[in-house]
Every structure is written in structure tokens, then in C-alpha cells.
């Protein structure tokens, strides 16, 4: 149960302690592990990280310092394991989910675990959601695609339907960005690719007609403010009105589906947040910081508080009220 005025961050990552030997479960499919403050991918350095990522005590101290009451804790996308075979991926996800539960057990009233699943295999993914919910996970965290399969893929739509049926909210995070060979340097895959991947995911659900097939009870949230979606919605609607090849599978324009999902607030500019709220409605935007990574919001909620077009009720909804409903905490 939450109290009024709480600050709830729905987009915060963890990389639990995993050894080099344990990473070999994935057998060549990335093999992520931790070594002395460095995320590793196999034998290669991937990115230096801070203790909050694997030390729950350090995270809770940071949350106190930053004024965050609760976090929905999801795995770092490097841990998804989608390139592995289903059996190995299932063993891997079981281990990661157990570690996330143990991490959040440091203070379960403030750290809310989200599980991950082997999304490459429908039956196993659905079974793992059921098991994770019974164990105490509050939702599921997935990548925005599995290889060439976007979210409107038949099996992924079936998985999302199962999540709705068992009342598990879904957080979608971009990963494995497209065209990385053209985005060398400057963190362009993160600055350009992530926004593009998320735009692609949202439009794939809309234009394929997947939202017509998915239950309205599905609670689905896209990270990073939905990427470039809000800014380019007018372009998508214009294409739907004027090109039959765009609207052939969707009976409604893209703008008709903005009430079918949530986005987080990680847009870093009050002007962008104003547009996001105008497009999505204030009830569909939740605080997300990408904690504890350097590209995340360093002062959680600052952009929400600094947006002059938001009144106090809107700020309270974005900072915590909407997440209470999304995560089923009320």
C-alpha cells in the first residue's frame, strides 16, 4: 500500500552479482557478469558501473538522498539473454530473477522486483511469468524485440496477452539497437538508436492492428518517454490518413491508441515533457529515471517539478500516483 505524495520510479536498473563462471550458462550469447565495478560481456569490458547497481544498501542510501520512496527494479538489458537457446535462457532468467528478488529483499517495501523471461520461447516465457509472480515479482521487463521479431510478432502478442490475463504489468526497454555500424562513437546507439527502437515498437503495435487484439487490461509501459513517438505522432497519423499501405491493418489512426500504454518521464526537458503529456494524457506518464546510469535523470523528478504547464495534481500523478495504478500498489 502506498501513501499519497510518494515518489515512485518505474525505470531503475539492477545488475546483480554474477560471476564469470555463472555467466557461462549463456554459452557464448553475451555472457554478462560483474568484475570490480565493470559490466563484462564475455571477456570484454562493457561499461564501468557504480555500487548502486549491485549493492542494495548503496541504492537505498541514494534513494534517501534523492528523495525517491520506491523503485521498480529491472535488470540491465545486457542480461536479457535472448540470443541463447530456450533451455539455457530459461536457466539464466531463473538465476537472474532469483538474484533480483534477493536484492530487493533488502527493503521489499521500497524495492519492487521486475522479472525477465526467455522471450524467444512463448511457452517458457509464460510459465516463467507465472512462477515469478508467485515468488513476489511485481511485473515483467522485456526488450523491445527478439532478433528480427518486433512486438507485433504473433508469439510476443500472445505473451503480452498472457501478462494481461495474470495481471502482470510489462515494462518495455529498447536494446540491441539497429544500424549500430552507422553509429560509431559518441554513444549514438543510446542517443539515436534507443529512441528509434521505441518508436518502431509502438508503431508496430499500432499499425499491425495488435492493439485491436490485445486485452485493454494490459498495462504496458515504454521507457525513455516512448522515444521519438510523441514528436512524430503527427507524421504517423498523416501517413495513415493518406496511404492505404499504412492503414491496411489498423482500423484507427495511431493517435487513437495512446490510451493503451504508458510512457516514463525520462525526456530531460520540460518542453519535451509538456508535449509528452499533451500527447499521452497526464494519466499515462510516470516517473522514470534510468537509475543509476549516467544518462539517467540525476535529480529524480526535477523535470516534472520544473514543467510550468503542470499543476500540482498533475505533478503528483506523474511522480507517483500513476505508478501506483500501473504496479497495482493501491
From TrEMBL:
Listed pathway(s): Secondary metabolite metabolism; quinolate metabolism
Pfam families membership: Amidohydro_2
Residues covered by the Amidohydrolase-related domain: 8-329
Protein origin, superkingdom: Bacteria
Keywords, ordered alphabetically: Decarboxylase, Lyase, Metal-binding, Zinc
InterPro entries for the chain: ACMSD (IPR032465), Amidohydro-rel (IPR006680), Metal_Hydrolase (IPR032466)
Enzyme Commission code(s) on record: 4.1.1.45
Top-tier EC class: lyase
Record PANTHER family: 2-AMINO-3-CARBOXYLMUCONATE-6-SEMIALDEHYDE DECARBOXYLASE, 2-AMINO-3-CARBOXYMUCONATE-6-SEMIALDEHYDE DECARBOXYLASE
Family: Belongs to the metallo-dependent hydrolases superfamily. ACMSD family.
Description of how the protein assembles with itself and partners: Monomer.
Protein name: 2-amino-3-carboxymuconate-6-semialdehyde decarboxylase
Amino acid at each position: 500500500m502506498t501513501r499519497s505524495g510518494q515518489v515512485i520510479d518505474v525505470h531503475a536498473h539492477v545488475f546483480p552479482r554474477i560471476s564469470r563462471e555463472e555467466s557461462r550458462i549463456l554459452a557464448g550469447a553475451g555472457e554478462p557478469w560483474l568484475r570490480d565495478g565493470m559490466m563484462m560481456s564475455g571477456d570484454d569490458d562493457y561499461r564501468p558501473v557504480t555500487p548502486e547497481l549491485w549493492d542494495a544498501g548503496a541504492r537505498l542510501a541514494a534513494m534517501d538522498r534523492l528523495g525517491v520512496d520506491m523503485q521498480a527494479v529491472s535488470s540491465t538489458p545486457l542480461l536479457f539473454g535472448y540470443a541463447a537457446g530456450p533451455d539455457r535462457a530459461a536457466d539464466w532468467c531463473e538465476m537472474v530473477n532469483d538474484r533480483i528478488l534477493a536484492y530487493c529483499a533488502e527493503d521489499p517495501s521500497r524495492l519492487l522486483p521486475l522479472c525477465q523471461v526467455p522471450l524467444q520461447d512463448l511457452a517458457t516465457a509464460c510459465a516463467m511469468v507465472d512462477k515469478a509472480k508467485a515468488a513476489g515479482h511485481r511485473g515483467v521487463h522485456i526488450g523491445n524485440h527478439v532478433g528480427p521479431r518486433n512486438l507485433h510478432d504473433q508469439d510476443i502478442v500472445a505473451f503480452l496477452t498472457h501478462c494481461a490475463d495474470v495481471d502482470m504489468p510489462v515494462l518495455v526497454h529498447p536494446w540491441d539497437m539497429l544500424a549500430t555500424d552507422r553509429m560509431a562513437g559518441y554513444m549514438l546507439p543510446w542517443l539515436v538508436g534507443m529512441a528509434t527502437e521505441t518508436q518502431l515498437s509502438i508503431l508496430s503495435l499500432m499499425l499491425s492492428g495488435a492493439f485491436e487484439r490485445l486485452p485493454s487490461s494490459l498495462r504496458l509501459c515504454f521507457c525513455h518517454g516512448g522515444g521519438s513517438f510523441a514528436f512524430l505522432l503527427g507524421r504517423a497519423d498523416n501517413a495513415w490518413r493518406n496511404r492505404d499501405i499504412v492503414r491496411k491493418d489498423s482500423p484507427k489512426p495511431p493517435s487513437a491508441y495512446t490510451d493503451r500504454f504508458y510512457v516514463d518521464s525520462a525526456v530531460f526537458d520540460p518542453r519535451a515533457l509538456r508535449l509528452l503529456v499533451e500527447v499521452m494524457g497526464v494519466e499515462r506518464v510516470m516517473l522514470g529515471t534510468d537509475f543509476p546510469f549516467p544518462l539517467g535523470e540525476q535529480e529524480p523528478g526535477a523535470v516534472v517539478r520544473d514543467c510550468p504547464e503542470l499543476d500540482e495534481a498533475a505533478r503528483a500523478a506523474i511522480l507517483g500516483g500513476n505508478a501506483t495504478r500501473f504496479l497495482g500498489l493501491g
